[in-house]
Amino acid sequence: xxxxxxxxxxxxxxxxxxxxxxxxxxxxxxxxxxxxxxxxxxxxxxxxxxxxxxxxxxxxxxxxxxxxxxxxxxxxxxxxxxxx
Amino acid sequence: xxxxxxxxxxxxxxxxxxxxxxxxxxxxxxxxxxxxxxxxxxxxxxxxxxxxxxxxxxxxxxxxxxxxxxxxxxxxxxxxxxxxxxxxxxxxxxxxxxxxxxxxxxxxxxxxxxxxxxxxxxxxxxxxxxxxxxxxxxxxxxxxxxxxxxxxxxxxxxxxxxxxxxxxxxxxxxxxxxxxxxxxxxxxxxxxxxxxxxxxxxxxxxxxxxxxxxxxxxxxxxxxxxxxxxxxxxxxxxxxxxxxxxxxxxxxxxxxxxxxxxxxxxxxxxxxxxxxxxxxxxxxxxxxxxxxxxxxxxxxxxxxxxxxxxxxxxxxxxxxxxxxxxxxxxxxxxxxxxxxxxxxxxxxxxxxxxxxxxxxxxxxxxxxxxxxxxxxxxxxxxxxxxxxxxxxxxxxxxxxxxxx
Lengths: 84, 404
Description:
- The complex is a heterodimer of chains A (84) and B (404).
- Chain A is of the alpha+beta class.
- Chain A has helices spanning 5-8, 47-68, 75-83; strands at residues 2-3, 15-16, 21-25, 28-31.
- Helix content of chain A is 42%, strand content 15%.
- Chain A has a three-stranded antiparallel beta sheet, with no helix packed on it.
- The radius of gyration of chain A is 19 Å and the shape is extended.
- By secondary structure, chain B is an alpha/beta fold.
- Helix content of chain B is 52%, strand content 6%.
- Chain B contains 22 helices and seven strands.
- In chain B, helix 16 (268-277) crosses helix 18.
- Chain B: Pfam families: CCG, Fer4_8.
C-alpha cells in the first residue's frame, strides 16, 4: 500500500443506489452525505480507512463463523422451533 | 472536583467536549463494551477507569461540567494506542464506513493528553522524555546514554549509502540508536534487490511519540523539520520500516499539512513482499526455527496490514510457522506503544508477558515481530520463557544470505 495524500483523499465517484444511499467501492454502501450535515457530520475518511473497515468486518465475520457457528439452520426451521 | 460556586460558564474542558461530544455520546449510549476484552490494558488490570469506554464517558462528564482535566489526565496514560478498541467497536466495524463516522478512541486519548499538557498537567516521565527529545532531536532510547544528532546515521556505517535522492529510508529512533541491526538488514536487502535509496540529510524524530504523549506543538515542529528536509533534498518517496512512523506519516503529517503533503510513503514490509513476488528476492538459506508471528498493532489493527509479513515468513525455507490469525491478534499487544513504557514500564511488562505467554502455548522457540518498538519489551518477557524475539527483516536477511 503506497500512501499518497491526494489519492487517499479523493474517493471514487459516488453512484446513487437509493434515495438515502450511495456507493463508491464495489459492494460498499454509504449513507447519502446530505443526511449527515445537521447533527453528526462526517469525518475525513481516506480511502484506505474505508477499505480497512470493510475488510476487517469480513475477516471478523468469518472468524466468528469459524469459532461459533457449527450448524446452519434455515429460517423455516427456526420458525418451526418457535411455534412448538 | 470543580467548585460549583466558582465554575465559569465556559471551561477548556467544555470547549474540548464540544469537539468530542458526538463520539463520546455514541460510545456512552451504546454501552456494549466489546472494546474492553480486546484492550491490552483492561486485560491485565481490569481497571474500569482505564477502559476505552471510560475515556469516552469522561468527555460526557466534562461536557456536564462535572470533571476537570486534572482529575483524569493520569488515567489516559493507560493506553498503548493499539487501536483494538476502536476497530472492534461496532460503531467502526459495522457502521463506520457506512456513515463515514467511526469511533476514534486513539485520537481521543491523544487529544485528552494534549489538553492536559496545554493546561499544565504533565506526567513526569513523559515530560522528561519529550524535553530530552526536544533537546537532542531524537528520543532518549539508550537508557541514560544521550542520543546524538551526529550519530543518527551510525547504524549505516560501512554500507556506503548515499545521502538524499528521490527515495530515502527513514529509520525510527529505536532502530537508529538501539535496534541497529534492523535498519542494517533492511538496507542490505534493498541493496541486494538493486532498489535505489538514500538517507535523510538531517533526520529528526518523526514527532509521533510527542503527539501521542500530548506534546502537540513539539510534534508539529519536528514534522515541519522533516518535511522541509525532504523537500530541500528533492525527496519524493519515503520508505518506512517502523509501523509507528508509518502511522505518523500517513495520519499525523496529512492532518498537519493537508493538500501540501505530496510525499509518497512506502511501508518496507510491503515493498519486500512485492520484491519476493516479483522474483527480485529469493530467500534460500534455511532458517531452522519454530516460529509464530506477532502482528504489530499499528500494522494489523490500525492499518489492516497483515498478509505481507506472513507472505515473507512463508517464503523463508526451514521455518516451521504456527500462525495465529489476525482477528485473534486484535486482542494481542506488546504494550510498547502510546508512551506506556515510558510512564508505566511495569504495565508494559505485564502486557508483554501476556503476549509471550500466548506464543509459549504454541510451543515455539521464536516470536517474530515487524516492529522495533515491540521487540525490546517482548525480548525481556521472552527471556523468562526461553523464547527468542526476532525481527522479520533480520530473519529475511538471514535467509537471503546477507549479513547484518
